[in-house]
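### Sample
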Amino acid sequence: MRDLLLQCAGVGAIVVALIHGLLGETKVFPRATIEPPRLRTLIRLVWQASTVAWIGCGVLLVATPWMDSASARRWIVLTMIGVFGLSACANAWATRGRHFGWMALTAVVVMAAAGY
């Protein structure tokens, strides 16, 4: 059951990351006015870098049950709880709780913690 929870957390992390990237490209950046243009490109790339990082975190959570090292499992799960927990807190604070992102990130944290 613990392994299934970690894998669900990983799939959830990947889904959240894909939604994050898609919403950034379709909703945020088309309306954003950022000058100069190269700064706009930089901010867009940083936004998508977090998308790729979250996908990588999700892949690690999915793969964790097949790792032979208990120490690797522990550090991966604890690190991902920290990454997604901080992201959830930042999202909730920045949007004053009016965005569903913090809830989705918190769900990933809860599943990962339960699978720990």
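Helices lie at 2-28, 37-63, 70-95, 101-115. This sample (DUF3325 domain-containing protein) is used throughout the tutorial notebook.
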